[in-house]
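Supplementary Note 3. Input sequence used for the single-chain structure prediction.
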Amino acid sequence: MKQNWNRSLIRKEGCKSPVDLKKRADHMIEQLKNIYGIETFEQTAVRWQAQEYLQSDSVEERVKGVYRILYQDTQIDEIPAATVAAAIGQLENLIAELRARQQVEEDLQKKVNERMEQRYAEYIRDIKLQIIKEESRSYETPYTFKKLALLEKMEYGGLKGSALEYLRPGSLEEIIGQELAMRALMAKLNTPFPQHIILYGPPGVGKTSCARLALQMAQNRDNSVFQPGAPFIEVDGSSLRWDPRESSNPLLGSVHDPIYQGAKRELAEDGIPEPKLGLVSEAHGGILFIDEIGELDPALQNKLLKVMEDKRVYFESSYYD
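The predicted structure, written as discrete structure tokens, is reproduced below.
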């Protein structure tokens, strides 16, 4: 495709002796060789019939050859400028623009190549990790399989229940002497906004049974917030143990960071923290019954109070939020 070239006179101050003009013409040709490459430059010169002009000893002829290459026109037989110096100045500006454009393209291509190499390295690494996980051998041994079979046999071969499960009250009529307490308990639970409740009384009076039965009755009421199958989680407050570093909190939950033991092997290898839900989260939508709550650790009581106020548990660590 031919380009429109400017025939306007370009006046360039400086030395205009034949020797200087020849040096400038030679310098232009060397710049074009660096831009195109020697082989491509020679092919371009042949294509636009500029080879004879470039090999001439005349500065004017060599300038004509450069014009033909830059403007890709074989019909240029005269210098489109008033003087040879003006023509050389015009060509030097064009070569400078061509060199600047080439530099921008080279920088862009370099960044593209670096990005492609980075993506390729990441792609190869992901494939290697996937292959390692697929081909990694199992750590189970015949001994561990034997222990698992023994545990399954014990699970299905033991007692099917306890006497308390059969003797536990199943209706309000089976609870004797606690009618007022049950009515108050139902009034607190069977509302659009159930409240936190403290049940107190001597051991064996039936606090746990009343709470469990109250939940079952509340589920059967119309417009109850407790859906069918709402969980009833029972825990002994005197037996709860927790780590002040929050690496272990069975009541509120915790996050097993990769630096702590307890995270799953496939998560620990990849540095992925594993959140562990606590009893509060397991009781979501139902009732969490904490027996002997007075024996609970005071620091854990304060944390539980915040959860009761906000109705939300936060899992936080240096790796996870």
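The first strand starts at residue 232 and ends at 236. Residues 1-15 have pLDDT under 50 and may be disordered.
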